[in-house]
Write a structure and sequence with these properties.
binds 5-S-methyl-1-O-phosphono-5-thio-D-ribulose, alpha/beta, 2 domains, four-stranded mixed beta sheet, Rossmann fold, Four Helix Bundle (Hemerythrin (Met), subunit A), 11 helices
């Protein structure tokens, strides 16, 4: 079985799986430039914090490869900086694009200042940096999967028959491959430790029912879909062992912004004495933000709530509130924050930066 790939890239050619078409069809669209990537991210044809950053950066690589040879380093630097600043404005909550942009601009400034570096060499170094993101994200996710699976087995004391709940989509579709929280679930499945995954529908955009359910069926993992308002009943009925979710931005104190509905699951997990985990690469941690209070929360169009496709499902004229994300306080993340460097309690993050 071919692995599900949200992002395909080879030497200047970038294609993404249009996630708006899932689960009906697997349609790839071509991203020719930064503007295409910005729109695809804004319209959520590609989504998920790591995937947003990777597509953004690879779209810049596509443009860099097309850039005429012979440009000065100053021109190159301004080009890269301007395009990255634009990409960061596509969606506000996930920090990965911003951190990736900062790292790339830093590299570009260093190359600019170094008189021993020719413009052509600087361009190659920037391309190498941007194009390395796909492989390094997969490597990080594999490590997250291993660390998370081991920790869940250890903390629950159960080697098999684990019942895990997850929210939103954190799998191959949200990353370069394998996934973060869904990667941990994948690792539990690989080691025959998994009994059942309970995935929430994740209203209103339905990342759970459209995307996670698609990945779970595709990979033949034992899974059950629940609506968001069934979470408490499911926790009690199925004796869930652990809940694991992804992150769009983790503040320095461990408070975590993730898909709307994550906070309510963490509150419910506490009531039911269930371990609650966040799985995210270090590129989702914003050490500049002391707590979750300063995380910008994206507000999405009301039509996501009032319509299913083109059919109106809510009374015309009703006022709506549609935040895309919420913030889970660090103290509710009882299992820990699973990263590519290991599993940390919130107060250990800064030390391990
Ligand atoms: O609005 P989305 O679909 O981009 O939100 C995605 C999430 O909230 C994910 O949980 C998060 O980005 C982590 S993806 C590995």
């Amino acid at each position: 079985m071919a692995t599900l790939q949200a992002i395909k890239y080879e030497a200047g050619k970038l294609d993404i799986l249009d996630q708006l078409q899932l689960p009906e069809s697997c349609t790839y669209i071509s991203i020719e430039n930064v503007q295409d990537a910005w729109l695809a991210i804004r319209e959520m044809k590609v989504r998920g914090a790591p995937a947003i950053a990777i597509v953004g950066c690879l779209s810049l690589a596509v443009e860099l490869r097309k850039l005429q040879d012979g440009q000065s380093k100053e021109v190159l630097h301004n080009f890269v900086k301007e395009k990255l600043e634009y990409l960061v404005t596509s969606r506000p909550t996930a920090v990965n694009m911003q951190l990736a942009a900062e790292a790339c601009v830093k590299l570009s400034s260093e190359l600019l200042k170094d008189d021993s570096v020719e413009a052509a060499v600087a361009k190659d170094a920037l391309l190498k940096h941007l194009e390395a993101m796909l492989a390094s994200d997969i490597a990080d996710n594999l490590a997250i999967g291993d660390y998370g699976a081991k920790d869940i087995v250890e903390k629950t004391g159960k080697k098999d028959k684990l019942r895990i709940m997850t929210h939103c989509n954190t799998g191959s579709l949200a990353t370069a491959g394998y996934g973060t929280a869904l990667g941990v679930i994948r690792s539990l499945h690989k080691t025959h430790s998994l009994d059942q995954v309970y995935c929430t529908e994740t209203r209103p955009y339905n990342q759970g029912s459209r995307l996670t359910a698609f990945e779970l069926v595709y990979e033949k993992m034992p899974a059950t879909l629940i609506c968001d308002n069934m979470a408490a009943a499911a926790m009690r009925q199925f004796q869930i062992d652990a809940i694991i979710v992804g992150a769009d931005r983790v503040a320095a104190n461990g408070d975590t912004a993730n898909k709307i509905g994550t906070y309510q699951l963490a509150v419910l997990a506490k009531s039911h004495n269930i371990l609650f985990y966040v799985a995210a690469p270090f590129s989702s941690i914003d050490f500049e933000i002391p707590s979750g209070q300063s995380i910008p929360i994206e507000e999405r169009p009301h039509s996501e709530m009032t319509h299913t496709g083109s059919i109106r499902t809510a009374a015309a004229g009703i006022n709506c509130w549609n935040p895309g994300f919420d913030v889970t306080p660090a103290e509710l993340i009882t299992g820990g924050i699973v990263t590519e460097k290991g599993v940390f309690k919130a107060d250990q993050l800064v030390r391990n930066q």
